[in-house]
Amino acid sequence: MYKTIIEPRVSETDGVGHINNTTIPVWFEAARNKLFKLFTPDSSFANWKMIILNMNVDYVDQIYFGTNINVYTWVKKIGNSSLQLYEEIWQDERLCVKGNVTYVNYNLRKEKSEPIPDSIRKELELHVL
Protein backbone atom coordinates (compact mmCIF):
# COMPACT_ATOMS: atom_id res chain seq x y z
CA MET A 1 0.00 0.00 0.00
CA TYR A 2 1.12 3.51 -0.76
CA LYS A 3 0.14 6.29 1.65
CA THR A 4 0.01 9.99 0.81
CA ILE A 5 -0.96 12.81 3.18
CA ILE A 6 -2.68 15.82 1.65
CA GLU A 7 -3.53 19.09 3.35
CA PRO A 8 -6.86 20.37 1.96
CA ARG A 9 -6.75 23.92 0.64
CA VAL A 10 -9.36 26.57 1.29
CA SER A 11 -9.87 26.90 -2.49
CA GLU A 12 -10.99 23.25 -2.61
CA THR A 13 -13.92 23.98 -0.27
CA ASP A 14 -17.27 24.62 -1.93
CA GLY A 15 -20.26 26.73 -1.00
CA VAL A 16 -21.78 24.16 1.35
CA GLY A 17 -18.62 23.89 3.45
CA HIS A 18 -17.07 20.61 2.36
CA ILE A 19 -14.34 19.70 -0.11
CA ASN A 20 -15.76 19.85 -3.62
CA ASN A 21 -16.28 16.50 -5.33
CA THR A 22 -14.18 17.62 -8.33
CA THR A 23 -11.12 17.77 -6.05
CA ILE A 24 -11.14 14.04 -5.27
CA PRO A 25 -9.84 12.75 -8.64
CA VAL A 26 -6.99 15.28 -8.39
CA TRP A 27 -6.06 14.01 -4.92
CA PHE A 28 -6.20 10.39 -6.09
CA GLU A 29 -3.90 11.25 -8.98
CA ALA A 30 -1.47 13.09 -6.67
CA ALA A 31 -1.24 9.93 -4.57
CA ARG A 32 -0.17 7.94 -7.65
CA ASN A 33 3.09 9.86 -8.13
CA LYS A 34 5.19 6.99 -6.74
CA LEU A 35 3.57 4.65 -9.26
CA PHE A 36 4.16 7.10 -12.09
CA LYS A 37 7.86 7.21 -11.11
CA LEU A 38 8.08 3.43 -11.49
CA PHE A 39 6.97 3.63 -15.10
CA THR A 40 8.60 6.98 -15.99
CA PRO A 41 11.56 7.56 -13.64
CA ASP A 42 12.53 10.88 -15.26
CA SER A 43 8.92 12.19 -15.08
CA SER A 44 9.27 13.30 -18.69
CA PHE A 45 6.08 13.53 -20.70
CA ALA A 46 8.14 12.57 -23.76
CA ASN A 47 8.69 9.19 -22.05
CA TRP A 48 5.35 8.96 -20.21
CA LYS A 49 3.90 5.45 -19.91
CA MET A 50 0.77 5.58 -17.74
CA ILE A 51 -2.46 6.16 -19.66
CA ILE A 52 -5.73 6.10 -17.71
CA LEU A 53 -8.49 3.90 -19.11
CA ASN A 54 -11.19 4.07 -16.47
CA MET A 55 -11.90 5.62 -13.08
CA ASN A 56 -14.78 5.16 -10.64
CA VAL A 57 -15.30 7.17 -7.46
CA ASP A 58 -17.72 6.45 -4.60
CA TYR A 59 -18.33 9.32 -2.19
CA VAL A 60 -18.96 7.82 1.25
CA ASP A 61 -18.69 10.78 3.65
CA GLN A 62 -17.90 14.48 3.50
CA ILE A 63 -14.38 15.89 3.74
CA TYR A 64 -13.65 19.24 5.34
CA PHE A 65 -10.97 21.91 5.25
CA GLY A 66 -8.71 22.12 8.29
CA THR A 67 -7.75 18.48 8.74
CA ASN A 68 -5.30 16.50 6.61
CA ILE A 69 -6.50 13.53 4.64
CA ASN A 70 -4.77 10.22 4.00
CA VAL A 71 -4.91 8.65 0.57
CA TYR A 72 -4.22 4.92 0.48
CA THR A 73 -3.44 3.23 -2.83
CA TRP A 74 -3.30 -0.52 -3.36
CA VAL A 75 -2.65 -2.56 -6.46
CA LYS A 76 -5.81 -4.53 -7.11
CA LYS A 77 -4.77 -6.45 -10.22
CA ILE A 78 -1.73 -6.64 -12.48
CA GLY A 79 -2.39 -7.66 -16.05
CA ASN A 80 -0.01 -8.08 -18.96
CA SER A 81 0.10 -4.38 -19.86
CA SER A 82 -2.46 -2.87 -17.47
CA LEU A 83 -2.99 -2.50 -13.76
CA GLN A 84 -5.98 -1.76 -11.58
CA LEU A 85 -5.70 0.25 -8.39
CA TYR A 86 -8.03 0.49 -5.42
CA GLU A 87 -7.88 3.78 -3.51
CA GLU A 88 -9.36 5.22 -0.33
CA ILE A 89 -9.40 8.66 1.26
CA TRP A 90 -9.69 8.90 5.04
CA GLN A 91 -10.15 11.91 7.30
CA ASP A 92 -10.41 11.74 11.10
CA GLU A 93 -10.51 7.93 10.98
CA ARG A 94 -13.53 8.03 8.63
CA LEU A 95 -13.61 6.44 5.19
CA CYS A 96 -14.74 9.32 3.00
CA VAL A 97 -14.06 8.19 -0.57
CA LYS A 98 -13.14 4.98 -2.34
CA GLY A 99 -12.29 4.42 -5.95
CA ASN A 100 -10.92 2.19 -8.65
CA VAL A 101 -8.74 3.16 -11.58
CA THR A 102 -7.24 1.25 -14.50
CA TYR A 103 -4.04 2.26 -16.28
CA VAL A 104 -2.23 0.80 -19.25
CA ASN A 105 1.53 0.84 -19.82
CA TYR A 106 1.56 2.69 -23.13
CA ASN A 107 4.38 3.62 -25.49
CA LEU A 108 3.50 7.00 -26.98
CA ARG A 109 6.11 6.75 -29.73
CA LYS A 110 4.91 3.35 -30.93
CA GLU A 111 1.27 4.20 -30.13
CA LYS A 112 0.60 0.86 -28.49
CA SER A 113 0.50 -0.78 -25.09
CA GLU A 114 3.52 -2.72 -23.82
CA PRO A 115 3.91 -5.46 -21.22
CA ILE A 116 4.69 -4.27 -17.70
CA PRO A 117 8.42 -4.94 -17.14
CA ASP A 118 9.28 -7.63 -14.57
CA SER A 119 11.16 -5.15 -12.35
CA ILE A 120 8.08 -2.93 -12.10
CA ARG A 121 5.79 -5.93 -11.68
CA LYS A 122 7.85 -7.07 -8.65
CA GLU A 123 7.50 -3.65 -7.01
CA LEU A 124 3.76 -3.55 -7.73
CA GLU A 125 3.31 -7.00 -6.18
CA LEU A 126 4.54 -5.56 -2.86
CA HIS A 127 1.43 -3.38 -2.78
CA VAL A 128 -1.27 -5.88 -3.80
CA LEU A 129 -4.49 -5.58 -1.83
Task: Give the topology, please.
Blueprint: E1 2-6, H1 23-30, H2 33-39, E2 50-59, E3 69-78, E4 82-91, E5 94-107, E6 112-113, H3 118-125
Antiparallel strand pairs: 1-3, 2-5, 3-4, 4-5, 5-6
Overview of the structural elements:
- With 129 residues, the chain is of the alpha+beta class.
- The chain has helices spanning 23-30, 33-39, 118-125, and strands at 2-6, 50-59, 69-78, 82-91, 94-107, 112-113.
- Strands 1, 2, 3, 4, 5 and 6 form a six-stranded antiparallel sheet that branches.
- A hairpin with a 4-residue loop joins strand 5 (94-107) and strand 6 (112-113).
- It is elongated, with a radius of gyration of 16 Å.
- The model has no long low-confidence stretch (mean pLDDT 96).
Would you kindly provide a brief summary of this structure?
Helix content is 18%, strand content 40%.
List keywords for this structure.
elongated, 18% helix, 129 residues, alpha+beta, 3 helices, 6-stranded antiparallel beta sheet
- Overall average pLDDT: 96
Strand count, sense and barrel status of the largest sheet are: 6 strands, antiparallel
Q: Indicate the overall shape.
A: elongated
Number of extended strands:
6
Q: Helical element count?
A: 3
Please give the radius of gyration in angstroms. 16 Å
Beta-strand content: 35-45%
Considering DSSP H and I runs of 4 or more, what fraction of the residues is helical?
Answer: 10-25%
Determine the N-to-C terminus distance.
7 Å
What is the multimeric organization of the chains shown?
single chain
**Low-pLDDT regions:** none
Alpha-beta classification: alpha+beta
Q: Give the topology string: H per helix, E per strand.
A: EHHEEEEEH
